[in-house]
């Protein structure tokens, strides 16, 4: 595993926890942190010991309180477009398209780029003191890491417009009601809840989970027919050892032992 300055990684029982560790900056994303997150996730994707990934922030004040504005305050139009383009490809699209399930453990503030990290993950769990928002228009800019797209996919066009246009933060309870997060729990139980979800998912077929991720994502990809993708991925499952094991275990009335092959 690589050595990092701004993140911490730990693997236990098939679950890798990646912690953004810039507490003095409320875990704000800068260029180096985005690069380190990409590297850690790329390594987790190819590590056979890792089945599930949890992303969180250090401490209880912030998951990620936005991007490091000082890095791009003086950018021009071309530099701004490149910032968005490279960041989406390197991290946010990368998270969404990982073949391994990702869970965002939202502890405290998830603002701007922080919320965009969370909505890139497959599942979100928030502590009850979490605050979520996209404040970019108050800075004269818009969300540039996929926030205008993924937020609307989760909460609907009207709610997305409200969050983006007011730049207001919403509570964890509102986020749950709106469908932005899957679960809300206390700060003390946040990681336990994420690991509880992980412990269920980890017993399922890794190859089928990867197919499910590709199929769900296909519905939101331009020019892609999600139903056709599902048909293809469904068929591919029949050629896997996991399918043979899963159906055999069911017929033999035992728990399956999946290999991801």
Verbal overview:
By secondary structure, the chain is of the alpha/beta class. The protein has 2 domains: 7-201, 2-enoyl-CoA Hydratase, Chain A, domain 1; 206-251. Helix content is 45%, strand content 16%. It is built from 10 helices and 10 strands. It has helices spanning 31-46, 77-96, 113-120, 147-155, 157-166, 172-178, 190-201, 206-218, 226-237, 241-251; strands at 7-12, 15-20, 52-57, 62-64, 102-106, 109-111, 123-127, 131-133, 170-171, 183-185. The strands form 2 sheets. It has a 6-stranded mixed beta sheet, with helices on both faces. Strand 1 and strand 2 form a beta hairpin. Helix 3 crosses helix 4 (147-155), helix 4 crosses helix 5 and helix 8 runs antiparallel to helix 9 (226-237). The chain is globular. The model has no long low-confidence stretch (mean pLDDT 95).
Question: What is the number of E strands?
Answer: 10
Structural class: alpha/beta
Strand order in space, largest sheet: 1-2-3-5-7-10
Shape verdict: globular
Which residues sit in consecutive blocks of at least 5 with pLDDT less than 50?
A: none
What is the CATH superfamily classification of the largest domain? 2-enoyl-CoA Hydratase, Chain A, domain 1
Top-tier CATH class of the largest domain: Alpha Beta
Total discrete domains: 2
Count of alpha/pi helices: 10
Strand content: 15-25%
CATH architecture identity of the largest domain? Alpha-Beta Complex
Query: How confident is the prediction overall: mean pLDDT?
Result: 95
Note the quaternary state here: single chain
Distance between the termini: 24 Å
Radius of gyration: 19 Å
Please name the CATH topology of the largest domain. Answer: 2-enoyl-CoA Hydratase, Chain A, domain 1
